[in-house]
Amino acid sequence: MVSRMSTRYISELIRQRVREAFDDRCAYCLSSQRYSNSKLEVEHIIPKALDGSDDESNLCLSCRLCNSFKGAQVDATDPVSLTAVPLFNPRTQTWLDHFQWSRDGVRIIGKTATGRATIVALQLNNDISVMVRRNWVSVGWHPPTDSI
Ligand SMILES: [Zn+2]
Fold first, then answer.
1. What is d(CA 128, CA 134) in angstroms, rounded to the nearest whole number?
2. Mind listing the pLDDT tens digit for each residue in 50-80?
3. For the chain, what is the radius of gyration of the CA atoms?
4. Fewer CB within 10 Å, N side or C side of the chain?
5. Gap from CA of 13 to ligand 1 centroid (Å)
6. What are the CB-based long-range contacts (under 8 Å, 24+) for 24-27?
7. What pLDDT score was predicted for residue 8?
């Protein structure tokens, strides 16, 4: 039997509210549920492994790739200043303050230390995501013109 321990305490109502709060998009890479058959996941911003709560304020929506690359990380090294900084917090920070799309729309560029560190830690420009975004761009689905 598969353990569902990490998700046991989050009600369907809360899951729905998180989904709505993030407009059915990954809070980190902005991938929309509409363009993926992999269900977006409710993610703990502060991981349960670090005593993060199941409260809505600690939950966001994340694609499987971002969620798995993030793991239990809460901070990472900014590749420019080489200092450790907190990862982007989708509940307290605004995506467009920390990130922007490359001119061709396929890569995420960090505007701040937190943005740059988050790109590295969550591998936001991994080969799969870049390839998929390139296809989305070709049919006019990407990049989004807003953030969450
Ligand atoms: Zn994502």
1. 10
2. 999 999 999 999 999 999 999 999 999 999 9
3. 15
4. N
5. 22
6. 24/61, 25/61, 25/144, 25/148, 26/61, 26/62, 26/63, 26/66, 27/60, 27/61, 27/62, 27/66, 27/90, 27/95, 27/148
7. 60
Cα(42) to centroid(ligand 1), Å: 12
CA dihedral 75, 144, 130, 119 (to 10 degrees): -10
Distance CA 94, CA 11 (A): 26
Tell me the domain boundaries of the chain: 5-138
83, with CB counted inside 10 A (0-12, 13-18, 19+), is: exposed
Q: Which residues hold their Cβ within 5 A of ligand 1, which is an ion? A: 26, 28-29, 31, 63, 66
Q: How far is the CA of 51 from the centre of ligand 1 (A)?
A: 23
Residue 2 confidence class, pLDDT cut points 50, 70, 90: very low
What is the distance in A from the centroid of ligand 1 to the CA of 63? 4
Question: Is the Cβ–Cβ distance between 106 and 133 less than 8 Å?
Answer: yes
pTM to 2 decimal places: 0.92
Tell how far the Cα of 92 is from the centroid of ligand 1, in angstroms: 17
